[in-house]
Amino acid sequence: MKKHVEHLWQIANKSERRIVGLMSGTSLDGLDLALCRIRGVGRQTQLITEQFITLPYTETFRKEVRKVFSVKEGNIELLVLLNTFIGKMHGKMVADTLRQWEISPTDIDLIASHGQTIYHAPAFLHPDSGYENATLQIGDGDHLAMTTGIITVSDFRLKHIAAGGEGAPLAVYGDYLIFSDEFENRVMLNIGGIANFTWLPSTALAHQAPGFSTDVGPGNTMMDAYMQKHLGMACDLNGELAASGTVHPLLLEHLLSDPFFRASLPKTIGPELFNLTYLEKALGRVGGELSHADVMATLNQFSAEGIILTLKQSLGSIQNWVVYGSGGGIHNPVLMRHLKHSFPENVFKNTNELGVEPDAKEAVLFALLANECIAGDGLGSNLFKEGMPDISMGKISFPG
Question: Could you tell me which of 204, 139, 194 has the C-alpha nearest to residue 168?
């Protein structure tokens, strides 16, 4: 063990680290793998993404994970088996990719693994249970470390909960490190399965409107689930079906009626609430038959409205901010059109303009969290809104 601790100490004291960031989201489309070169810590952090790839999952694997994903009752044996299996599988995917890139594992300092979220349970989803915030990501870090021979930092979200947060969203920490700007107010909008954003005020505005991250509602999760169930397609490519339909006002009203949309910020959510059962209940209140196109048009508007409502709720009279988008949802022109129409005075860009590929951003952010876990000294507890504890996150697994 001593040699591993000494190696970790050496990594912590290097001026530059190479870290592989891994992200597997609720869409289950694949494993995002970002090879990052990170110099320094805290506000002195400098990052270059050397390589990025998304490695697709097989449909067989997706079906197995969906048996235990976001369900209140499931197969505990399968859950336990998948925890080991995903750790090994992700480790093999990393090892194979490094070989393809002709990079030796000895040239990599750390792996930062988000794991696969199985259930996210903020306290407001189970108010009468007597339990507090909880979350579970599987894909064991020890198996990742043993499979690759690389020190692995994983299971980031539980420390956030232990420190008083909800375990999500964690984007504010990485966003703050590399995207904060002295003069520009920035909204770092990520539209994955769930949509969230980070508010990064300029230096001049930070004391009046401190930074924070919050989930805002569904991004792609309900649209994708509907397309998969009813049309046998992975997603509504380019929003084509939504564009051919008409938004149903009463259905949209019912979809937006959940107390989540009126809850104080920051807040978190997942497919545990926003799923096809939620849609079916809303459709039941509306009555009648809706075409697939009209349902998709309404779901698209629903995803946009969650973002729009929360931006208006949180930023209020602040007008001069720029949106930098990331995640799969930014490739949906119908969804982006709704957002731009609601904020005609604001500029919409994507994170490419800040040096990070939009699809790589979440994997990059976990590499940053691992860098801070190993080498950082904290960011300063007065920087963020309440509910954003200033802590290091991640559990360390040695390869031996």
Answer: 194
Structure tokens belonging to residue 255: 């979809």
Cα–Cα dist 20/365, whole Å: 11
Backbone angles phi, psi at 329, to 5 degrees: -65, -25
Classify the phi-psi angles of 102: left when phi > 0, otherwise alpha if psi is within -120 to 50, otherwise beta: left
> In Å, how far are 128, 149, 269 from 195, measured between CA atoms?
27, 34, 9
Q: Which tens digit of pLDDT belongs to each residue from 68-95? A: 999 988 899 999 999 999 999 999 999 9
Q: Are 23 and 157 in contact (CB under 8 A)?
A: no
What is the distance between the alpha carbons of residues 46 and 20, in angstroms, rounded to a whole number?
Answer: 15
Q: What's the CA angle centered on 397, arms 396 and 400, to 5 degrees?
A: 145
Burial 42-57 (b: 16+ CB within 10 A, else e): eeebebebeebbbbeb
Q: Which two tokens stand for residue 219?
A: 């991004």
323 neighbors 346 (Cβ within 8 angstroms): yes
Report the candidate in 160, 226, 177 with the shortest Cα–Cα distance to residue 354. Answer: 177
Neighbours of 220 (CB within 10 A): 28
Please tell me the distance from the alpha carbon of residue 186 to that of residue 202, in angstroms, as a whole number: 8
Mention every residue, 6+ apart, whose C-beta is less than 8 A from residue 372. Answer: 41, 42, 173, 177, 379, 392, 393
Q: Nearest-CA neighbor of 368 among 188, 222, 132?
A: 188
Which H or E run includes 147? helix 141-148
Q: Where are the beta strands (DSSP E) in the chain?
A: 16-24, 30-39, 46-56, 110-121, 134-138, 152-154, 185-191, 194-200, 212-218, 321-326, 347-350, 395-397
pLDDT bucket at 128, cuts 50 / 70 / 90: confident
Tokens representing 109 are: 């300092």
Q: Map 326-350 to HEC letters.
A: ECHHHHCHHHHHHHHHHCCCCEEEE
Residue type, 362: E
How many Å is the maximal CA-CA distance in the chain?
A: 68
CA neighbor of 309 nearest in space, from 236, 247, 255, 385 = 255
Structure confidence at residue 383 (pLDDT): 58
Q: What is the rounded end-to-end Cα distance, in angstroms, of the chain?
A: 8
Joined tokens for residue 80: 């336990």
Q: pTM, whole model, 2 decimals? A: 0.92
